[in-house]
Specification:
Helix content: 40-55%
Order of helices and strands: HEEHEHHHHHHEHHHHHEHE
Largest sheet: 6 strands, mixed
Distance between the termini: 40 Å
Structural class: alpha/beta
Shape: elongated
Strand order of the largest sheet: 4-3-5-2-1-6
Radius of gyration: 19 Å
Oligomer: single chain
Strand content: 5-15%
């Protein structure tokens, strides 16, 4: 098993998960105030080759923009130092092992999951439960045919590098790492229970996710059972990974209206819809939000 490759994918996938039910045309919006505007697009971090090329509204926004803004610096996220930081944060100290962190029931459930996929649980023994949760989620997406190389961020970043188009980020990698580490505050057994339950529904969720993303029905993401469970059973996780970050981003996005450039902002699709979403928050600040036609 190529743990290093999984780690490389994982650093791109921090969650990387309604008020916009009338918007059902694409996953890119034009955000306007006065005579200035920028674009914002909802991304899926892992896709398959069959999802390419991206919907044409992404090309429209890309071609009309002067600068691309991602959640984090994709080049830094892919660096060896970032991978080492993530591995260090996920690794248990001293003589502790995954078995010592979990109840016999949770450990056996996880062992059964690995056995069904012909993976030795021993390869994960030195990782913290939240780290194992993230790793197995990426593994399962990959098993179902989705890869980071086909994800929206990777595709758009590659274009920007090719065209020498400036790239910026909303958060540093260290900030994103702190979001991962916040999961340590959640009961270890609950983290594994939630993850295994979530993965049981993953094939159906992936189908719905890809359809809703292409059509712009992002509010449907909020109807997913796993997302509802995260909000109700793990509110600290939801607030840390979604709500608090949305609130911080709004002030940064507001600054985009202070220059003469057109930016194309790309964030995970779960950050955009609903009452807590970035689109609703932008509207409340007086922006006109229009969905691009696909």
């Amino acid at each position: 098993m190529k743990i290093k490759k999984i780690i490389n994918t994982l650093v791109l996938c921090v969650a990387s998960s309604s008020a916009i039910s009338a918007w059902a045309e694409s996953s890119v919006w034009k955000v306007t105030k006065g005579d200035k505007f920028f674009y914002i697009g909802g991304t899926v971090h892992l896709l398959s080759s069959s999802d390419l090329p991206l919907p044409k509204e992404f090309s429209t926004a890309y071609n009309n923009s002067d600068e691309i803004i991602f959640e984090t610096d994709t080049e830094v996220a892919n660096s060896l130092s970032s991978q080492q930081k993530l591995i260090a944060a996920m690794t248990l100290p001293g003589e502790q092992t995954l078995r010592t962190q979990l109840s016999p029931k949770a450990y056996q459930a996880l062992n059964t999951f690995f056995s069904e996929r012909n993976l030795p649980i021993a390869s994960f023994e030195k990782f913290k439960p939240w780290g194992v949760s993230l790793l197995v989620s990426v593994l399962e997406y990959q098993r179902l045919g989705l890869q980071a190389e086909f994800g929206v961020e990777t595709v758009i970043s590659g274009l920007a590098q090719q065209d020498n188009k400036p790239q910026q980020e909303l958060e540093s990698f260290d900030e994103q790492l702190s979001f991962f580490k916040s999961m340590e505050a959640i009961n270890n057994n609950q983290v594994i229970e939630y993850t295994l339950s979530d993965l049981e529904q993953l094939p159906e969720f992936i189908t719905d996710m890809r359809q809703n993303w292409r059509s712009g029905n992002l509010e449907q993401f909020l109807e997913n059972a796993s997302i509802k469970e995260m909000k109700t059973k793990f509110p600290k996780m939801y607030n840390t990974l979604i709500l608090n970050r949305n609130n911080r981003w709004i002030s940064q996005l507001d600054e985009l209206n202070n220059d003469n450039k057109v930016e194309f902002v790309l964030v995970g699709s779960l950050h955009l819809p609903g009452e807590d979403g970035v689109l609703n928050k932008l509207q409340k600040k007086g922006y006109k939000v229009e969905q691009l036609n696909n």
